[in-house]
Design goal:
The structure holds two protein chains of two kinds. Chain A is built from 26 helices and 19 strands. A six-stranded parallel sheet of chain A has the order 3-2-4-5-7-6, with helices on both faces. In chain A, strands 15-14-16-17-19-18 form a six-stranded parallel sheet, sandwiched between helices. A five-stranded parallel sheet of chain A has the order 10-9-11-12-13, with helices on both faces. Chain A is globular. Chain B is of the alpha+beta class. Chain B folds into two domains: about 80 residues, ACT domain (Alpha-Beta Plaits); about 70 residues, ACT-like. Chain A, domain 2 (Alpha-Beta Plaits, 2-Layer Sandwich). In chain B, the strands form two sheets. In chain B, strands 5, 6, 7, 8 and 9 form a five-stranded antiparallel sheet that branches. The longest helix of chain B is centred in the N-terminal third of the chain and has 12 residues. The chains are: A alpha/beta, B alpha+beta. At the A-B interface, loops of A face helix 1, helix 2 and strand 4 of B.
Chain lengths: ~600, ~170
């Protein structure tokens, strides 16, 4: 659109602009918004129009921005998250006022929890009507205040370029997160001189970047003397694109790594230093390494309760080096012995540089520790009972999918048992190859997030492992994938239950199953998929699993849904019951006898 | 009521400079509510620079570590600067208005009480007297206790405000 407007008023060359000869263009507020989004490099927006946002949808027709018309605003939000997770660029969603805005509150909360850069533009009733309970009016900035990094209510069209520039700056710098712009209809219709914003001026916002040198020196002192160190790697390593630096740090120090649910792929699972996922359903080696550790080096992780278990019993002997770009994370849950407030990548590079200055590390020092970890890992791997072949084990589906898909596949998941099995049994080798809802635990995340990931990375195959409960929440976005030609593949692990809830009712509520049964056949997932323009496949026996996956892999002109009928009796192991110490880890029944 | 215990204050006064923009107070109070931080009082008013306002917040540092409160506040985009005013190194003040069940024909003891705390009578009627006092919060606590003997009908205190004490001239 920028080009259209420019040519209409005689500006056709971008070099003029960069040469500083161009000043302003008179446009509507809606056009100013689209121009501002284009100026931020936005290529894709997910959205759904409605009354208050109508003025914005007119200039979208002339814009270079690809608008993907979702079927529900929650889908727009999760798609924007999936796009951001897959690409590292901010996801953008556009919705209308009232229910459009409230429907995207869940994705905002999800993005806030998982630090996903996202900008949402929500329509609002005309500024003069705000506060009158106008049609489709909701106090959107009030509602979203607690689930956004920041939000704006645009009062005058002259503010648009500045607010959009600030929104993207805030969403993408420091600890990333969602920013919402509430955009009243009359503001969209105002005439305004649009001008590209050169720089943002936010006196209260200056996220830290570089680490404090003395903190790095202290951290290095601890690293040099630790006997049982663990690198506790969280999502911040992915956000700061620090995987390369992390690999170098591990190569330098020989320290083993755990990768949290948000950091799967930040360090390759195939590396002998990788202990896998810690936490409630983490590997015995990862959980116990942290418990026995004398030095936890936390990199962009936040000591989530699903990782720590009972905080007072977590890693009791460990000193803590806590690296985080968000100073409020330091000491929030666990007191840090050394706090490094910085971008993870810069902090890791500083650690490597500081280590190089001193004596070479004594590699033999960690040998007993690595031997212990190696033993735990080989004795207590993730495992399941393969059964007699009469049922499909959900873990088997994950393994087959892992082995039958390309190395650079992007895996997305919903929330629940299937998510844990995906994290446990997959082998992640690269960052941004795993996209899921960690902090908020949003069922229904997978389908729209997979769509967003595929939009961001059309060169990659995108598979989602979803639960039957999750799938029912947001499956309508498969209509969008058909209409917009965004082929994704969905593996439903259909056990006819809300599986994780069922597992908890089994283990902690005396098998009193309350409101967890879903039915394997209602809805008919194959028929549903086909009605949405997708290929639907049903798999009812183990020998059909691989052929179905291979068939799905060959279809690249539309989305595919496979209804895998899985064994409902499978539980996720290990499990640390909520509120218990990580020392009370419950292993798979076949391993229980050997653990302690 | 907020006296120091064991020599260590259980409250801290935060002086927070914020951008003077719509909704900033809601952002600050909302943060306290959703993070479960307790506030004893909160006062907000513009500063000499119209771009900024200053919020004085008395926070409970027994229930939450001060550092956590400060760091979470600092994350608000509109919060520009936060000063932690240690009670021992800050000048604190508060304003009190009270209607007391004392008639125009006031007794000597009431007049003395008013005088002792530099308060003044701002309204009076046959049944009641309204007094106003400004002072450090501790002395206002004492003044309020003194007024109770006469029967407080209504009272409004502003909550404390503060600035760092000046360094002694050298």
């Amino acid at each position: 659109m920028r080009r259209a407007i420019r040519s209409a008023i005689g500006f056709s060359s971008t070099s003029e602009r960069s040469g500083g000869t161009e000043t302003t263009v008179e446009v509507t507020g809606a056009q100013a918004l689209i121009l501002s989004l284009e100026a931020q490099g936005v290529e894709v927006a997910f959205g759904l129009p409605g009354g208050a946002i109508l003025p914005v949808y007119d200039p979208i027709l002339d814009s270079s921005i690809r608008h993907i018309h979702v079927r529900h605003e929650q889908g727009a939000g999760h798609a924007a998250e999936g796009y951001a997770d897959a690409t590292g660029r901010p996801g953008v969603a556009i919705v209308t006022s009232g229910p459009g805005a409230t429907n995207i509150v869940t994705p905002l909360a999800d993005a806030y929890m998982d630090s996903v850069p996202m900008v949402v533009v929500a329509g609002q009733v005309a500024a003069g009507s705000i506060g009158t309970d106008a049609f489709q009016e909701v106090d959107t900035t009030g509602v979203t205040m607690g689930v956004t990094k920041h939000n704006y209510l645009v009062k005058d069209a002259v503010e648009i370029p500045r607010i959009v520039a600030e929104a993207f700056h805030i969403a993408t710098t420091g600890r990333p997160g969602p920013v919402l712009i509430d955009f009243p209809k009359d503001v969209a219709n105002m005439r305004v001189d649009w001008e590209e914003v050169a720089a943002v001026d936010l006196p209260g916002y200056s996220p830290p970047v570089l680490p404090d040198a003395s903190a790095i020196r202290q951290a290095v002192e601890l690293i040099r003397t630790a006997r049982r160190p663990v690198l506790y790697v969280g999502g911040g390593v992915v956000k700061s694109e620090a995987s390369g630096a992390l690999a170098a740090l591990v190569a330098t120090t020989g320290i083993p790594v755990v990768t949290t649910l948000m950091a799967r792929g930040a360090f390759p699972d195939s590396d002998p230093h990788c202990l896998g996922m810690p936490g409630m359903h983490g590997s015995y080696a990862a959980v116990t390494a942290m418990q026995r550790s004398d030095l936890l080096i936390s990199l962009g992780a936040r000591f989530d309760d699903r990782v720590t278990g009972k905080v007072s019993a977590f890693a009791p002997d460990a000193l803590v080096v806590h690296v985080d770009i968000d100073p409020a994370e330091i000491g929030k849950v666990r007191q840090a012995d050394v706090a490094v407030v910085a971008d993870c990548c810069h902090a890791i590079e500083a650690l490597i540089a500081a280590l190089a200055e001193g004596e070479p590390l004594d590699a033999a020092r960690l040998a007993p520790w690595m031997a212990q970890l190696s033993e735990w890992r080989s004795r207590f791997p993730f495992t399941y009972d393969p059964g007699d072949g009469s049922t499909i084990k959900p873990q088997f589906v994950v393994e087959q999918l892992r082995d039958a898909t390309p190395d650079d596949v992007i895996l997305v998941s919903g929330v629940g048992q299937h998510q844990m099995w995906a994290s446990q049994f997959w082998q992640f080798e690269r960052p941004r190859s795993w996209i899921n809802s960690g902090g908020l635990g949003t069922m229904g995340f997978a389908v729209p997030a997979a769509m967003g990931a595929k939009v961001g990375r059309p060169d990659r195959m995108v598979w989602a492992i979803d639960g039957d409960g999750c799938f029912q929440m947001t499956a309508q976005e498969l209509v969008t994938t058909t209409a917009e030609h965004i082929p994704v593949k969905i593996a439903i692990l259909n056990n006819a239950y809300l599986g994780m809830v069922r597992q908890w009712q089994h283990m902690f509520y005396k098998e009193r199953y309350s409101s967890v049964y879903l039915s394997p056949d209602l809805p008919d997932y194959v028929g549903w998929a086909e009605s949405m323009g997708c290929v639907g496949l049903r798999v009812t026996s183990p020998e059909e699993v691989l052929p179905a996956i291979e068939k799905a892999n060959e279809i690249d002109d539309r989305s595919v849904v496979i209804d895998f009928r899985t064994d409902v009796t499978e539980h996720v192991y290990p499990i640390i019951p909520a509120g218990k110490s990580n020392d009370e880890i419950v292993l798979h029944p076949s391993q229980e006898n050997f653990a302690r | 009521m907020m006296a120091a215990t064991n020599g260590k204050a259980r409250y801290h006064l935060l002086s927070v400079r914020v951008e003077n923009k719509a909704g900033v107070l809601a952002r600050v109070s909302g943060l306290f509510a959703r993070r479960g931080f307790n506030i004893f009082s909160l006062v907000v008013a513009p500063t000499q620079d119209e771009r900024f306002s200053r919020i004085s917040i008395v926070v409970d540092v027994e229930s939450t570590p001060l550092s956590q409160i400060v760091e979470q506040l600092a994350k608000l985009i509109n919060v520009v600067a936060i000063s932690e005013l240690d009670p021992d190194r800050a000048r604190e003040a508060e304003l009190l208005l009270a209607t007391v069940a004392v008639s125009e024909d006031r007794g000597q003891s009431f007049v003395e009480l008013i005088g002792r705390f530099d308060a003044r009578v701002v309204e009076e009627s046959d049944e009641a007297t309204m007094v106003m006092a400004v002072g450090d919060p501790g002395s206002l606590d004492e003044f309020e206790a003194g007024l109770e003997r006469y029967g407080i009908v209504e009272i409004q205190r502003t909550g404390r405000i503060g600035l760092p004490t000046l360094s002694p001239a050298s």
